[in-house]
TrEMBL record:
Residues 363-374 have a biased composition (Polar residues). This is Glycosyl transferase. It comes from the Bacteria. CDD domains: GT9_LPS_heptosyltransferase.
Length: 374
């Protein structure tokens, strides 16, 4: 298979594309050329993955969380672009709640002769390899398992962790030379992160404990980071994705919700304090292959809802976390390099989590959660 041109499809957000990295490296080890097809939301991450020869960008209306039908001309144009590259094989990567079959239809129209995907739905003639596996495996391992089923293996010496291309910008113009902790408060769905007020209290708490804090955020998160940062360094909207990766690589620890920055931190080898709302399983979506401490009530009633917005004024599963516990988690990671992953006691009986959160005041977390992800 080493001379083949293989297409890997991962149509989703930045973190999803980063988690596809080990699969892409396995495919590259058994291919002559690898093209990666992603959506606009994941394209910046695709540009940083090793072993990718070309990145194609197209927004799939059956995957994007804010879908817009692109029109038949756009669909046919994509088919023409794919046909012109004469792919020998394709792997379609999806999360458990997504179907690969619409993508497979387009690939068949483009003349791709061999297609593999994970699918619970009957694929008919659309797939040559229909793989099925336990939904609770980590997302990176889910994709890598498909690669193995398709006949690809990671090269010798590759540990299967997340990874970026070696070259990244110098972060010094943004952060100077003194040690720092990154706080990244934003997330693509509001239900995945705590309130701005909680983040501001956490930044102040970290500073009072003697930590130099750098607050980061994407181009549409500058208002949030400005509200959160206080006297900390505010990089909201000031970095490219590659520059953010460089800032995270030089950080001592990253504090973030379930968002692309947490996976980016894992990809550059920086430990993570993960503020994880249980709307998706932490087993699948927690920071992968990196030292981490998970905080947040994993048994809140919104568990597994995939809600995009919490309808409560207070966000009990995250806002109830005491900011002092975040500082404690940061310091535990700094002084304990052998720690792999730790969960709060409320998540799994018998673990040694450090959660000291007060119970939520006001309404319990029993609202109807709207705007589920598709």
């Amino acid at each position: 298979m080493t001379g083949l041109h293989t297409l890997v499809v991962r149509q989703d957000n930045l973190g999803d594309v980063l988690l596809a990295g080990p699969c892409v490296r396995a495919v590259a080890a058994g291919s002559g050329r690898v093209t990666l097809l992603v959506g606009p939301r994941g394209s910046a991450a695709a540009a940083l993955l090793p072993d990718v020869d070309e990145v194609l960008v197209w927004e799939a209306p059956w995957i994007d969380p804010e879908p817009v039908w692109p029109g038949s001309d756009s669909v046919l144009d994509l088919v023409d672009r794919l046909r012109g590259r004469r792919f020998d094989r394709a792997l379609i990567l999806t999360s458990f709640h997504q179907s690969p079959l619409p993508t497979a239809v387009l690939l068949r129209m483009a003349g791709v002769p061999w297609i593999a995907a994970i699918s619970d739905d009957y694929p008919g003639a659309l797939l040559d390899v229909r793989h099925r596996l336990d939904a609770d495996v980590p997302e990176a391992e889910r994709a890598l398992d498909l690669a193995r089923r398709a006949g690809y293996q990671l090269p010798r010496g590759d540990d299967g962790r997340l990874r970026l291309r070696a070259e990244l910008p110098d972060p010094a113009p943004f952060v100077g030379s003194e040690p720092y902790v990154v706080v990244h408060p934003g997330a693509s769905a509001a239900a995945r992160t705590a309130s701005a007020g909680w983040w501001a209290r956490t930044v102040r708490s970290l500073a009072l404990r003697g930590h130099r804090v750098v607050v980061t955020g994407g181009p549409d998160e500058s208002a949030l980071t400005r509200a959160v940062a206080g006297s900390a360094i505010d990089l909201g909207g000031r970095t490219t994705f590659a520059e953010l990766a460089a800032v995270l690589r030089s950080a001592a620890v990253t504090v973030a919700p379930n968002t692309g920055a947490a996976h980016l931190s894992a990809a550059v080898g920086t430990p993570v304090v993960s503020l994880f709302a249980p709307i998706v399983p932490v087993e699948r979506w927690g920071p992968y292959g990196i030292r981490s401490i998970v905080l947040g009530d994993q048994h809140a009633p919104c568990r597994g809802s995939r809600a995009r917005r919490c309808d409560l004024a207070a966000h009990p599963c995250l806002d109830a976390i005491d900011p002092r516990d975040v500082g404690g988690a940061v310091e535990k990671l700094l002084r304990n390099p052998s720690l792999e992953r730790e969960y709060p006691r409320v998540w799994k009986q018998g673990t040694t989590g450090i959660l000291r959160s007060k119970p939520p005041t006001g309404p319990t977390c029993q609202a109807q959660f709207r705007n589920e992800e598709s």
